[in-house]
Amino acid sequence: MNSYAIVAIYFLFWVMAAFLVLPFGIRTPDESGEVLLPGQADSAPSNFRPLLVCGRATVLAAIMFAIYYANYVFGWITTDSLERMMH
Question: What is the pLDDT of residues 11-29, one digit of tens each?
């Protein structure tokens, strides 16, 4: 696997991880006791911290990529084994 493929696959894992960790720890103004601003949606987050989300996504993506790469190197799950499970 070349370095471009590694970066591209890690980026895909990072985007997926970012969407997975995005809702954790978010509170609405109603939950945090803040007053809504005029025009603000009721569901808008009041404590959004993008650096925390990026950090969590980076750690989760690194774990997912490590598992993917280990499977690539050691061949734990192959297309042949998936085909055998389907039949």
Answer: 999 999 999 999 999 998 8
Distance CA 82, CA 66 (A): 20
Please spell the DSSP secondary structure of 31-55, one letter per residue: HHTPPPPTT--TT--SS--HHHHHH
Q: Do 53 and 47 contact (CB within 8 A), yes or no?
A: no
| 3/76 Cα distance (integer angstroms) | 22
DSSP letters spanning the chain: --HHHHHHHHHHHHHHHHHHHTTTT---HHHHTPPPPTT--TT--SS--HHHHHHHHHHHHHHHHHHHHHHHHH-SS-HHHHHHHH-
Q: How confident is the model at residue 82 (pLDDT cuts 50, 70, 90)?
A: confident
Return the domain boundaries, the chain.
Answer: 3-86
